[in-house]
Fold this protein.
Amino acid sequence: MSSAVKQLLREADHRVARLAKVRRILIEARTPVYLAILGPLLEAFSRDPRVSVFVTGGDSPAVRDTLEASAARRAPAGARAPAWIEREEAEWTRFDLLINADPWGTVTLKRCRDRINFFHGVAGKYDLDCPSGLPAGFDTYSRVAFANEDRMRRYLDAGIVTSGQARLVGYPKLDALVNGAFDPAGVRRSLGLDPERPTALFGPTWSSASALHIAGEGIVTTLLDGGFNVIAKLHDRSLQTSERFTDGIDWRARLSRFGSTGAFALATDADCSPYLSAADLMVTDHSSIGFEYLTLDRPLIVFDAPDLARVARINPEKIALLRSAATVVRDLPGLAVAAQDALRDPAGLSRQRRQVAGEMFFRPGTATARAVATCYDLLGLHTEGWAAPNDSEGEHELEAAV
């Protein structure tokens, strides 16, 4: 069959699909964190009878369990839970729209009209700030949604995406955090922690060169000894015990010894937002959630991991940017001092935190509406209650600091 005939058949298939009253959306989540990235969209779609949502997984066996647990806990009244579909079954199923948060290793679909990619991070790791030499395949996407103008401009200037594809949306995952959806004391109680005790979040990135691998247990011990509750929020990959992802280390088991202190919790929810809200300060090496934490304008400490930039192929500009809004320490005694200083003077570096947050996230707190509107444009649906807010409404006060 010639390519021209195949194209005609595809177009006919898509036209038939548009006659249906309900649009079919496939959400692709390779690991549980992608469900957190796309969770605001899932919630919005669940309340709209004009769309039917399916979810497929990837290379993590925990995705389906995470989806079911999240749906049971957070489904709004009257919402319809998404249907699970295996990747093999999805290949020949007709969809109007594929939504994912990772351009690599995407599901093979023979009957999908449009595709949209939302980035799952902003830290500039693994050459994602400008992957001109990587086989990312952005040409297959109808739209590419950017969290900030810097990365969008890099992709446009490099010819990785066209102006017709690129949309400046922001980071929907942040909206709940920025808009105060979580009760910090309630989150601490839910983790079995004293809600009145100062709380530190340890959020290292995934890499054998990360702070977790070079000093993770020492970091937790130092913070506990300093009088903090400690919440450890590890990357999805750090919880998959394998040579590839963790050098064979079982971090759940390694960190379990701190459970007896009564002041330590290993966070298990794929969405880090509740844990960010509960923390008085955060310790990271270089991660997207470090940038996310800046939107709360609370103290950030970067624990230097000397080989991380090389191993994780991090854009040096992003390393400098995060550190400009943080206290950088290189050993455990330095961490102990920095943590106590942060408690005494939480307003230190506030201007820098607010400025960096404003650069990294386009109008935080209002991104979900723009994301839904972008999807509905591809689906040929009116947004109705999901039109993006006026730029002057509901914006976080970060704007004033930039």
